[in-house]
């Protein structure tokens, strides 16, 4: 199943809203990745990695989440 921008934003928001992250910021981050040629899934995983590093949240990427 292909991930939509809304799916990506909602998934990220469920984890990172407690740090003050807004849906608008998350949408901008995802859309910037897409503008640079990444798929929604790749942009989503990139944002996950960056936010995880910044906040200390543990993000685990498995084969299923990357494909």
Give a brief rundown of this model:
With 67 residues, this protein is an all-alpha fold. The protein has helices at 5-16, 23-35, 40-55, 63-66.
Helix content: 55-70%
Number of strands: 0
Percent of residues in beta strands: under 5%
SS element count, helices: 4
Radius of gyration over C-alpha positions, nearest whole angstrom: 11 Å
Elements, N to C (H/E)? HHHH
Helix-strand category: mainly alpha
Give the averaged pLDDT, no decimals.
92
Q: What shape does the CA trace take?
A: globular
Oligomeric grouping of the chains = single chain
State the end-to-end distance.
Answer: 10 Å
- Sheet with the most strands? none
Low-confidence stretches: none
Explain how this protein is built.
The protein is 67% helix and 0% strand. The longest helix is centred in the last third of the chain and has 16 residues. The protein is built from four helices and no strands. α1 packs across α2, α1 packs parallel to α3 and α2 crosses α3. With 67 residues, it is mostly helical. The mean pLDDT is 92. The protein is globular.
Supply database-style keywords.
single chain; 67 residues; mainly alpha
């Amino acid at each position: 199943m292909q991930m939509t921008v809304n799916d990506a934003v909602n998934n990220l928001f469920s984890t990172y809203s407690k740090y003050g992250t807004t849906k608008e910021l998350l949408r901008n981050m995802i859309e910037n990745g897409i503008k640079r040629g990444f798929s929604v899934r790749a942009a989503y995983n990139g944002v996950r990695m960056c936010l995880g590093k910044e906040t200390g949240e543990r993000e685990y990427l498995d084969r299923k989440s990357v494909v």
